[in-house]
Amino acid sequence: MRMLIREAVERDIDQIIELCQLHAEYEKSSYSKVEKQEKLFSSLFKEKNGIKCVVIEEERQLHGYATFIKQFSTWDADWYLYLDCLFLREETRGKGIGKEMMSLIKAYAKKEGCINIQWQTPDFNQDAIRFYKKIGAESKKKERFFWD
Question: The whole model's pTM is what?
Fold first, then answer.
């Protein structure tokens, strides 16, 4: 079966939280699941706040996720898309799925009239930095990426 990239739905919340935990561990950060289910569920599925979440699924198992939101840049006097999180399980990396996910996010940004996509990654995450540069993103100070 082929992996499917789709918008997150309510039944995904527990697996999204699990992926958040794995993401935090990968980035050498702490993470607590305390109160995450209620807060994430509300933010992703109930509130009208513009946060979007897409997931990678194969046979009801989530293999990755991305969250993003449209934001305004005063310096540019225009809108951009901020990619808050992008994470793929280790066994899912290197198969072109991340590139597919970024293409989907880029299409959404263009549809929304955003001038670019911006995100950050820790400077020690060299695999992610190589991936972002491979898809044509450029790095600026603080490891924040811009993708037109």
Answer: 0.86
